[in-house]
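Blinded run. Sample ID left blank on purpose so nobody reads anything into the name before looking at the predicted structure. Input follows.
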Amino acid sequence: EHLRSDWAGRQTAGCASMDEWASVQAALTKGPAEAPRGPATQLSRSEDIFHSVWARKNSPQADHQQQIAVLSAVTEVLVQQGIALNAGAFFAAFLSSLDGYRSRANAAALGGADESSAAATCVLLSLVIPKTPRAVVHRKLRDALGVIDDLCSTPEGCQAIVRSAVQCKKQLLLVAATDGVDAATVCQSAGALLPLCADTRPKVRKRALESMASVLETLRGSSSKQQLRAHSFICETLCKFAGDTLPLAAAKGTSEADDSMENFRRALHLLGGLRQLMPFLNDAALDSIIEIVSLLLVQSQGSQPLLATLVVDCAKTVVVGPSSEPTENAPSVSAKSLESLLKAVLQLPSLDRVATATASHEVDALVSATSLIQHAMLKLGKLNPSASSRLLPNVFHVLLPLLTETSHEALVFAASQCLTDLARFCLPLATAVDYASGDVGPTIVERVFLSIQNLFNIRYQHAWAVLLPISGVCCEVMGKSALPYVSQLVQVMGSLHSDRTEDIYQEQQLGVALGLAIQGMGPEKFFSVFSLNLDGPWEKARVWLLPILRRYAASCPLSFFAQNIIPGAKLLAARAEQASTRQGQGIHAQRMRGMVLVLWGTLPAFCKSPPDISPSFKLIAKDLGDGISKQPELRSTICASLTQLICGTLDAHHQARSRREDAVTAQEKAKYALEESRTAEDIAAIAKFSKNFLPVLFNVYVAAGSTQRNEIPPAIRAFSLIADKDTLHTFFLTVLKRLLEAIAEAPTVGDGMQEDSYEKQATYMELACFS
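Blinded prediction complete.
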């Protein structure tokens, strides 16, 4: 009572009050041993609750000085009355002061000085609440929240009071939420905080959202049923408030209400605030929010582009989470809500009018919408594959035209990334849905491929470089199926090649797309659709496909190489021989010989874990041996390929054995035992020809110069690892015999022949070491 009656005088004589309190401040800065007798000793022994306030005593800001003045006055009163200076005493004193402010505010008698003092008192109360004994806060919780709620509802002009009162409410609600006391009061007070989350005053709105987020996070992380029920109630209240507030935004500019602009602003603020609160809502609330924003998105199309952009950003937060990339802690949304949201987003007029988007914020909105479609489709595919498959053709139909807007690089990148991810994840799901439905007419996957194929129109030539990788991914995913539209898309892409093209980047992307198609379809199926034309005129042979084959082919059957590549190489070699005998055909002969080298250059790709070593290696063994011995230009390629084939098969065999030994279940043991048996058969199939290859490699190594032997020793070592003992023994004895002969001949040769003899001896010694 003394504080209330003398308060106005203290405001006018603040400096005098500060002087009176100087001795107390000095005591606070000293240790307990140096503190004088009297009230200052009591202060030095008390907990320094307001250290942050005293640290700003020299601040020129008016609110800091006001906090110092209020704290000085309250402390002086407590000391004069003989009350111990602890957190509980300050809590009661500040709360009592705020109750008086509330009474004068309700009577409309709150002046400017009272406003600043009330705001300062709220700040001090928020600092003392966390250090006040919980029992004291629990007893006064309902009264304290009542006082604070009334202060939060003060007129628009008292922004400082409301902002500070919201901070106090946050501390009170956190204490109640953590301890699980008076859930009904907590729910009521938290509900009263919701209108401030959409307040037009930025600082008030920021404090309210931070407070609400903290309370929801605390309640959601609790294991108490009472606290979880309070969390659900607050979420329901929030959804009801959003359902009442957000639709008002669509009424902007109408004559339904004079304050339509104010409602529009509040709705925009609430949309921004919801993004901050989304991670702490329960699943039911998220579904409700999605339904509300989906309806708002439909209502705002065409007339409210800014509102539509904010709705998309809000929905993206629901689907993805607060970060830019989805995480394991992303909010959980039902499949039904996701489907409704996607239908609403796909109907956005801005996606159709992208060509007229000139401002950067319009392009950013389209990028955000594209990202939302991507993540929502991926999440919907996991929850309901049938629903995501039904939407897939429409998604491709809407997003593919965005690839043509090459002036907006960010938009093109977002659309291509979205379509690529959807092709990899959703196309297999759509295939299963098509198979299960058995519908007559264009299937889901067929409609997707037709949309892609239609974009290879000459009008969209500038977008082909972006479209090609997406097409390649689609062919890779669907390559194993014998569906006609996959073959048609491969033929369309292949027809884009031109030796005279000036667009190098597009040609590179074409190679990527066709390489992905080869990986998915396999060489046999791919070249049955888009042939190499090796048996036709050499000018029309598609030799340009061979580097792509070499780069992207893996686990390709050796039978394809034996039945297609080797016959084609022999045919071109024969034609080159014939052309070389004709006058004026020398250049053509040279080109065809180059094509032969390119054909043989694909051999390493076929030696990367081929699936048919056992039945097919014998089909190419003789040609490989002839190539080593008779065609020096092929020797390096063949030797390197054989080394890769043998070493890769041995590694696979050892890994299968190790996994079989480490396997726990009988099923795993049987699986790896089968793999071990298969690789053993492959090794035996190659080892059968060791007796043929080792002599060939021996002769070539001896005859070749020192600079032409690099690839031969690894091949000899590889065959030595798998050859049977008799073959290896015979080869080793032959090498030793030749070595002894060279040593025996060395003394009989002339001085000029000694160097050659020494080189021959070194060669045989190297061969002995290799074997």
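Unblinding after everyone has recorded impressions. The CA atoms of residues 109 and 712 lie 102 Å apart.
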